[in-house]
Specification:
Number of strands: 18
Mean pLDDT: 89
Low-confidence stretches: 1-16
Length: 267
């Protein structure tokens, strides 16, 4: 259940749950698990614990005792890029997967059970951006956010917002808040009145080598210091740092090329 602002609030057993459609998890698929653990452990202070293995080796990244992200291993026979994927909460992943299909999306994996922790599916929207759907077995969700090393935001880069935003609105029940501007094609998707994710239409400026894709933003204490650490650990700086209305932001990549963003909130 949620409070009046749509945020997670306790169940009767003291756990927390998210309203369907809320971003609830981020997961990274890579080829070298040990090296990836070293990179993100040094960058964000994460520790790692074994996780459910529906798709192969998988660990949970833990910060101060709370799971904040997952890292799995790509199948060796599939030529897929390392990438971060956001997951959105569902009360019934099988039903949500059917809605995805009926709206022109594709369900590439699942729905399937994750060792008793819940059920998941991996899907793509009609333009090809990959996202996950997660139904927790007990309805609970990670209980830490807003601290350095935790996901802060997920944003979709795509060709145009109109049709894609309608897709996510139908699947997850969002309300749209478009930016009124001739120079910016951007829609904030809201759930119960609060912003939960964004869709940025880039038109011909969308990188052709990537296509439509989601980017996960992680909170850091200092964006410039975090960029220096990324470079020291063998990662790349792709854009920024730059000051925005939402804080100082940089786009980076880990040593395997998985892209993500760093953000320090306004002080």
């Amino acid at each position: 259940m949620t409070d009046a602002r749509g945020n997670a609030r306790p169940n009767g057993d003291g756990s927390a749950r998210h309203a369907p459609g809320t971003p609830c998890w981020v997961s990274l698929m890579v080829r070298g698990l040990d090296a990836t653990e070293q990179f993100y452990g040094a960058l964000f202070g994460w520790e790692f614990r074994p996780g459910p293995r529906p798709l192969g080796p998988y660990v949970r990244a833990v910060l101060d005792g709370h799971a904040v992200a997952g890292i799995g291993v790509l199948p060796p026979d599939r030529r897929l890029p390392a990438a971060w994927t956001p997951y959105f909460a569902s009360d019934d992943v099988d039903l949500t997967a059917e809605v995805v299909r009926s709206c022109g999306g594709t369900v590439g994996v699942g729905p399937l059970s994750a060792d008793g922790a819940g059920r998941l599916a991996l899907a793509s929207d009609p333009c090809g951006a990959v996202f996950g759907i997660w139904e927790a077995a007990d309805g609970s969700v990670p209980g830490v956010s807003g601290r350095p090393g935790t996901p802060a935001w997920n944003e979709l880069a795509t060709f145009e917002t109109t049709n894609v935003a309608k897709f996510y609105e139908t699947v997850f029940g969002y309300d749209e808040e478009p930016v009124v501007s001739a120079d910016l094609d951007y829609v904030t998707l809201r759930l119960d009145g609060r912003p939960v994710t964004g869709v940025h239409g880039l038109g011909n400026a969308l990188p052709r080598d990537r296509g439509p894709h989601w980017t996960t933003y992680f909170t850091v204490a200092d964006t410039d210091d975090a960029v220096d650490q990324v470079l020291h650990l063998g990662g790349q700086l792709l854009g920024g740092p730059r000051d925005t209305a939402h804080g100082r932001v940089a786009t980076v990549a880990d040593p395997e090329g998985a892209r993500f963003a760093l953000v320090r909130g306004p002080r």
